[in-house]
C-alpha cells in the first residue's frame, strides 16, 4: 500500500505550534503534500524544513516572501524533482512542486484563490489556462516512463454543488464560478484525470476540507471541498480509502484546512 496525504497548512510555522508536528509524527503516510507553507526553507527550523525520516523538496515564493509556498515530504528519496511547470509568470510564485519516484509522479499544487472582478481573479484564470496543458503534457511524459501521476493540493475550486454547503449563495464567487467549475471538468474530461475522493465517495454533501475561521462554520460543517487528490486512471482505480482527517473540535484545528489522506494499493 502507498498512503498519500495533502493539506494546506495555512502557514507551516503557525501550524507546527498548534499540532502539525504531532500529526506528522503520527501519520502513516508515505508522501505528504503541503500548501501555503509561507516560508523560505532557510527560515524554517530543521524539524520542519527537513524532518527526521523524511526527504523534502520545497518551492517557496520568491516574489512575495511569506506567501504561498508548497512542499513534498516523502519517506523515499525522489529520483527527480521540479519546481514550477515552465510558465515564467508562475515559476517563482511557490505554487507547484513535483517529485518523481519509481512508477509515480507526485505534484503539490496551490492554485491561486482569486476574487471575482479583480486582478487576482485574472491571475487565477491565467494560471488555470496554462496549467491545464501542463497536466496533459505531464500525463504523456509520465506514461512514457511507465509512471502514474498524482497531483495533490488546494485547487481552490469546488467542482460540484455537493462540494460546498452554501452553493446557492456562492455561484458568483471565486471558487465556484461557472468558468472555474467548467475548467475543473476539463481536468477530468480533456486531460483524463480522476477525482479520487469522488470515485470512492460519489455522493455528497462533502466531505469538506476547508472551513472559514469566521462564525460557526466549523461547528456547523459549513465548508468547501477544495482540496483534491487528482490521479491518472491507472492509479485512481487502486485507491482503497479516502479520509478527511477533520479535527474533533474547533480548538483542535491546526489549519483552516484538514488533511485529505488516500490509501492506494501498489
Radius of gyration from the alpha-carbon trace, in angstroms:
17 Å
What would the average pLDDT be, to the nearest integer? 96
The helix count comes to 7
Domain tally: 1
Unreliable residue stretches? none
Sequence of secondary-structure elements: EHHEHEEEEEHEHEHEHEE
Shape: globular
The N- and C-terminal alpha carbons lie at a distance of 5 Å
In what range is the share of β-strand residues? 15-25%
CATH superfamily: Endonuclease/exonuclease/phosphatase
Largest sheet: 6 strands, mixed
Helix content: 10-25%
| Strand order in the sheet with the most strands | 3-4-2-1-12-11
Annotated CATH architecture: 4-Layer Sandwich
- Topology-level CATH name: Deoxyribonuclease I, Chain A
CATH class placement: Alpha Beta
Q: Class by helix and strand content?
A: alpha+beta
GO biological process, one term: DNA repair
Site (Important for catalytic activity): 227
Site (Transition state stabilizer): 156
Pfam family, one: Exo_endo_phos
